Amino acid sequence: MSDFTTWDILRNLLLAARWTLLLSFVSFVGGAIVGLGLVGLRIGGGTFGRRFAIGWVELFQGTPLLMQLFLAFFGLGLFGVDVPAWLAAGVTLVCWSAAFLAEIWRGCVEAIARGQWEASSALGMGWLQQMRWVILPQALRIAVPPTVGFSVQVVKGTAVTSIIGFVELSKAGTVVTNATFMPFTVYGFVALIYFVICWTLSTSARVLERRLDVAHRHH
Fold first, then answer.
1. Among candidate residues 164, 197, 185, 169, the one with its CA nearest the CA of residue 13
2. Whole-structure pTM value
3. 53-70 burial by CB neighbour count: b if 16+ within 10 A, else e?
4. With 0-12 CB in 10 A as exposed, 13-18 as middle and 19+ as buried, what is 95?
5. Exposure string (b/e) for 120-146, b if CB count within 10 Å is 16 or more?
6. Is the Cα dihedral 197, 202, 203, 209 positive or negative?
7. Which helix (H) or strand (E) segment is 87 a member of?
8. How do residues 98-112 score in pLDDT, each as one tens digit?
């Protein structure tokens, strides 16, 4: 008979959820920074820059996240490099997120009418000024729904890191299940916590969309 109460189970899972949230935040923010750089290379970079950005996107979109985690965690170990699970998970998810965010944002930027580029160029703006003052503010409204949608995928993607020993929410669920022999209760709570996190993100996105739309119409 397990000595764990329902509250004990929930408390342990909530403690582990902190690491899911932290890893998701680091992965998304890091991926956003790298992804923005890739967008710049893809749109305004030279031949080498464009090829590098395309290669990055094709590599990380065209291979399974699980395989990328294995290579980051175990691959370097073949050369005697000891990689902590949290570092391998963070770096892999940042690179993976950057590839998807770069493509999302590139599509949003390219959706802006060509006339906007031509008009801003006629005003004597350079490429960076065009991006900063004309293109990106318009692309932002288009980018909100797919960007937030992908952030939900990042949260759920953190579950894969349990395979290399990173203790986040899904890994904690397995550990607690092994200790309590109450899989239905444990994984029910795990699913509920994931739902609350993802639902909060989606709801926040809808609010942000409405505010951006209202601001645009007033403008």
1. 169
2. 0.90
3. beebbeebeeeeeeebbe
4. buried
5. beeeebeeeebbeebbbebbeebbbeb
6. positive
7. helix 85-110
8. 999 999 999 999 999
